[in-house]
Amino acid sequence: MPFGFDGPTGFANPRLGLALAAGTGSTAFPTVALSNSPTVTFGAQFSASSIIITATAPVAGISTAIQSISAGTTQITTGQAVLSNSAGVLWGANGRTITAGVPQVSVWQNHPAASSNVKLPMQSNISNVFLNRVSLFNPIAATRAILTAFLGNASNGGAYTLQLGIYTLNHSTASLASTASITVAWNGTGTNTTDVAAWSGQSDTRARSIPLGTWNMSAGEYLLAILGSFTAVGASQTWSFNGTAPNAIITLGLGSGPSTQPYFPPRATYSAATSTLPNSIQVADLATSINQNAQLAVPSICFVGTF
């Protein structure tokens, strides 16, 4: 309910006299008090030429409360409605805001560690970046990544470095969100298979664990990067991951290469050899020549989080 008063032209400072009457009472300016009641709230706004008095009151028959909630064929019009957790959906409330989400998981794996070996070429100091597109259907706070890999032909001593990176995707651009790496060295002596500082404790097929700190990943699509390099003494080292071997049919579907696609393919290789993971990758940066044994392979990787 707006009330107003406009004085004559040139009214800048003092207001003209004004008398108000309500019931049997009356008063004159300059003092008029409008008191709030249980159902009416008063307010005022002042300017150089006017005084605006407002009054707010509820309209009979109209309520600001929720009148009904419908879900499917059921409608709730009275009482309390409860949103129950079910089918992997978790409900919450913060003030007047209702939220819905999926539960966080403790373990995620792109696929079981198959028995076939995926050979990814690695060199001294620099190597290729191998990229796999992955989908997370639940959030995870990953603290460790585990790959199963075979290490051979380096019995004279040496070291390897494994780098992992997770990229967020925006159409044809992948941006580096988190990285982690581990360097493991060994010598050529000893026969103890549990001694991680000896070749006997690093050779053959083993789980290779990489601490991540904490990778907080929400549900969505990502690009997973693997970069590895060797420093070996007097040996031609080999490195093979357990995973899914490439399918020759996929080669036919790529045409002249993944860079001709407007999006990142499920499997690809960064076009240049490097010693560090790039901060950003464009689809045009992917290798156009297909190395079926490497680019189209999918190493098995497992993310482990908090339980």
Q: Which helices and strands, and how do they pair?
A:
Layout: E1 2-6, E2 19-22, E3 25-28, E4 41-46, E5 50-56, E6 69-71, E7 74-76, E8 90-94, E9 97-101, E10 107-109, E11 117-119, E12 123-124, E13 129-136, E14 140-152, E15 157-170, E16 173-187, E17 204-217, E18 220-232, E19 238-244, H1 248-253, E20 267-269, E21 280-282, E22 298-299, E23 301-305
Parallel strand pairs: 12-18
Antiparallel strand pairs: 1-5, 2-3, 4-5, 6-7, 8-9, 10-23, 11-19, 13-18, 13-20, 14-17, 14-19, 14-23, 15-16, 15-18, 16-21, 19-22
Low-confidence stretches: 1-11, 248-255
Which overall shape is indicated by the principal axes computed on the Cα atoms? elongated
Report the sheet-strand fraction: over 45%
Multimer state: single chain
Distance between the termini: 58 Å
Structural class: mainly beta
**Treating each run of at least 4 consecutive H or I residues as one helix, how many helices?**
1
Overall pLDDT score = 75
Give a structural overview:
By secondary structure, the chain is mainly beta. It folds into 3 domains: 55 residues, no CATH class; 33 residues, no CATH class; 199 residues. It is 2% helix and 48% strand. The chain is built from 1 helix and 23 strands. Strands 10, 11, 14, 17, 19, 22 and 23 form a 7-stranded antiparallel sheet that branches. Strand 8 and strand 9 form a beta hairpin. The longest helix has 6 residues. The protein is elongated and about 110 Å long. The N terminus is likely disordered.
